[in-house]
Amino acid sequence: MIFIKKFSELGRDDIDQAGGKGANLGELTRAGLPVPPGFVIVTDAYRAYVAEHQLADKITSLAAPTDDPGGYESASEQIRGLFADEVSDALRAEIAKAYAALGEDAQVAVRSSATAEDLPEASFAGQQDTYLNVRGMEYLLIAVRDCWASLWTARAIAYRARQGVDPTKVSLAVVVQQMVDAEAAGVMFTANPGNGRRDEAVISAAWGLGESVVSGSVNTDNIVVRKPDRTVLSNETADKAVMTVRAEQRTQEQPVPAAQRQQPVLSKSDAARLTAYGTRIENHYGVPQDIEWARAGGQFFIVQARPITALPEAEAPLPTDWTVPEPTAMYVRASIVEQLPDPLSPLFADMIDGAVTRSLQGVFRELMGGEDLIRDDDVGLPTVNGYAYYRYSRSGMWRLMWKSPKAMRAVLSGGMLQERWRNYSHPKYRRIVSDWSARDLSRMSTQQLLAGVEELVEAGAEYYTSVQTIIPAAASSEVVFTRFYETVVRTKEDPPAQVFVLGFDSAPIRAEKSLYDLAGWTHDHPELAESLGTLSPQEFLERAAVSQDPVWHEWHSRFHAHLSTYGHTIYNLDFMNPVPADDPIPLLETLRFFVSGKGADPYKRQRHFATRREEATAMVLARLDPVRAKTFRRVLHWAQSNAPIREDALADVGLAWPQVRRMLLEIGRRLQQAGVISKPEDVFWLHRTEIDEERGSLADRVQQRKEVWRGQRRATPPQLLPKGGWGDMWRRWMPAASEEQTGDVIKGIGGSMGNVTARARVLGGPQDFSQMQPGEVLVASITTPAWTSLFAMASGVVTDIGGPLSHSSIVAREYGIPAVLGTAVATRRISSGEMIKVDGDAGTVTLLDGNKSEEIAPAAKGPPRGKIIAGAVGGAAAVGLGAWMIRRRRSHNPG
Q1: Within-domain flag for 382
Q2: What angle do CA 306, 310, 314 make, to 5 degrees?
Q3: pLDDT tens, 663-715?
Q4: Which of 95, 177, 313, 809 can pair with 751 through a Cys bridge, CB separation 3.0 to 4.6 Å?
């Protein structure tokens, strides 16, 4: 039996013999890369040793999975003690011959090479041992046995148990490689692990041997190189205090000479040469590589290469330039932008801009009695760094301000606009959606489908604009009632004003009750309830869809009835984002919560608030004089009649989106078949004109746009642009917290009373809903009606965007949990699992885990967001009014 293989005799397909490390070194050697010479003691040698000393059964028994944290340590100690005996004479002779070929008493590195390491699907690298500067045959044999034993370190046993690797299937080869007397060494990633960019290489470099770089025990220079032209993009030189060098046997650390401590390890030309090797290796393997390198005598050597695991999706640099195309116009993130916290997809941006302009023109024409108040060039919804902004020309703004009192009277009265919504806007929108939903998409041309999408988006924009005219009525009525109550009516014994507007039904509350009812029905069927708790959401839904069991079939019917009524609520208005009807998995987490019996009964909660409201009303009226009582009844009725309307209207904004997505994905399937895009969902990343053209592959262009979008998503868009322009006169009216907040207290707007101290859960969207745990504080950029299912689990709510009359505020009140909104920085400053105090009365969030007073980095964690004011009438006409009402409220009741 052959126990030794030279590197030149091995390749990437020899993992079973040489392990991942040995197979890679053989592949690199055969590819002509500068790999120091060596050989591999193949896995048959390990198996022969285990068989010769009858160790297999003992190892298998000791390495069994355990829940005892100390169990793996004990097992490892016992297993490693089994490898104390000498190797066979035959193996000793083979090793001696191969070792002599490297030179008399050659200095070598002896590395473990497991059969389950250095694979793309699992990173086992570093789980076993490495011994450097081994010299002499006897020391080499000791290192070989120690490497075999290191297959069973506590860390390696536990890692394999977590990864589900059968301990009987693993084996170990040993790499013996001539040591490079390195003056410098390090690691190179052929893709940037920080931003995922595949066109950038990242090099870490230090003086001395490379083992300390791999282990992270020394400071390193860090260099980023653009691979196509090998230009150094950044070069950070560290203060390198220590270095690893050879000792008589093995290695030791010693101080770096003073002259070298702050001297760059690599020149720009060195970095370019090293990057060329990295690009060559990446091209050879076809995937980005994690490469260990060394330099001796001015020559580079490659001592290891493995695929990079867990590489993030590529993203472009964070945008910092917020210059606008028209410096004389005002760009504001308000109104519809509240539902667009992320950069827009290209196709949505193309379609929504003109639709919003036309809808605004229509509503103002109606409010002004046919007067053409807004011209085509007065308003639009362009993007700046991908983020949507309302754009108003200076002349358009002055006309709106001059003419707006007439419109404001209609808006603030509320009644006429509510009737318009009920009797015209809502029925019209439903009718258009119903008409398109009944059509056979497969029989329609791509142009017909596009025309349908445009008609539905136009209808959605018109509907949203009509909804936005309702908000000022809701805002003004509650503010006026609160002001009157606090200054003229309230005594120390009376409850706060918000008690009088709670306990009413609305679409989000009805959706919660629908899910709660389904949970109750599920709980009454134990087998179904158990499956909901044990199967993954995807597995549960798939089983429900195909099961012939009457109980499962009934559940499936009830769940789809819920989705048909409430599944169109949006997480984000950009139709790139699925709605619950498209992806119902996030709802399963809340359903599980209710089935477990942990959730509060929404019917009881609503009755409690309604009873409290009626009792408070009766108590106040009983002591008021007739004049105040009459005014109190009037303003209270005004506030109560408007309170639920906003949520009812807003819940149906996405009514067309399931059908829009079906039509666009049908187009996407056709484009995929034509080779234009890689998958149907990539249709959202095309521009409208590109769908018409259908010429050649656009896959690379789509990938580039996704990278730009990911970089943009890390930015915090300013609420008002341009900075320093004439629009700055509006900035002081914006009820917005600072986007540059530092310190342990984050300021926002109190949206719901009370305070709570609990752990935070930062969620970026429905894909994160499964992370939410009962009792945590929900922290998000924004919440829309589709987020309501999480409020049953949350102890509080904190958002980047929003105001006292946003969805987050209104629903948090109905759940009786505190809310702080419009912080601008919450998703950047707060980490999941961190303890925070949410004070809805003061409008503050206090960070309790350590000092957070440092400056905010522009590219801090999570997708930061801007904020908006509540109460905009389709945009700027009510910016001043809505902001004035909120400022008045805040001045009277801080926070």
Answers
A1: yes
A2: 105
A3: 999 999 999 999 999 999 999 999 999 998 767 899 999 999 999 999 999 88
A4: 809
CATH number at residue 306: 3.30.470.20
CA distances from 566 to 465, 618, 648, 652 (A): 21, 35, 11, 9
The residue behind tokens 């609990």 is 758
**Cis omega (within 30 of 0) for bond into 722:** yes
The answer to whether residues 65 and 194 belong to one domain is no
Lowest average pLDDT, out of 251-255, 577-581, 756-760, 776-780, goes to: 251-255
How far, in Å, CA of 87 to CA of 5, rounded? 18
Same domain, 461 and 518: no
Examine residue 120 and state whether it is found in any structural domain, yes or no: yes
629 in the same domain as 678? no
Residues 199 and 120 in one domain: no
Provide the H-helix boundaries in 170-248.
211-215
**794 and 691 co-located in one domain:** no
- Sheet strands (E) in 688-834: 720-721, 745-747, 749-752, 755-763, 777-780, 796-799, 819-821
Reduced to 3 states (helix: H, G, I; strand: E, B; else coil), residue 581 is coil
Distance (Å, rounded) from C-alpha 172 to C-alpha 176? 13
Query: Using alpha carbons only, what angle is made at residue 538 by residues 558 and 773, rounded to the nearest 5 degrees?
Result: 90
Mean pLDDT of the chain: 85
Pair (812, 667) in one structural domain: no
82 and 205 part of one domain: no
CATH of the domain at 751: 3.50.30.10
Neighbours of 69 (CB within 10 A): 9
Let me know: does 301 contact 210? Beta carbons within 8 Å: no
- 642 and 475 Cβ atoms separated by less than 8 Å: no
Q: Which residues of 135-162 are buried (b: 16+ CB within 10 A; e: fewer)?
A: beeebbbebbbbbbbbbbbbebbbbbee
What DSSP letter does each residue of 813-838 carry, written as one string?
HHHT--EEE--SSHHHH--TT-EEEE
Question: Quick one: pLDDT at residue 224?
Answer: 96
Would you say the pTM of this structure is higher than 0.85? no
Structural domain containing residue 202? 180-314
Helix (H) or strand (E) holding 418: helix 415-420
Q: What's the token pair of residue 676?
A: 């234009």
d(CA 288, CA 307): 6
Query: What is the C-alpha to C-alpha distance for residues 22 and 26, in angstroms, rounded to an integer?
Result: 6
Tens-place pLDDT, residues 37-81: 999 999 999 999 999 999 988 888 888 877 776 788 888 899 989
The answer to whether residues 287 and 359 belong to one domain is no
427: Cβ contacts below 8 Å, ≥ 6 apart: none
Q: How many domains does the chain have?
A: 5
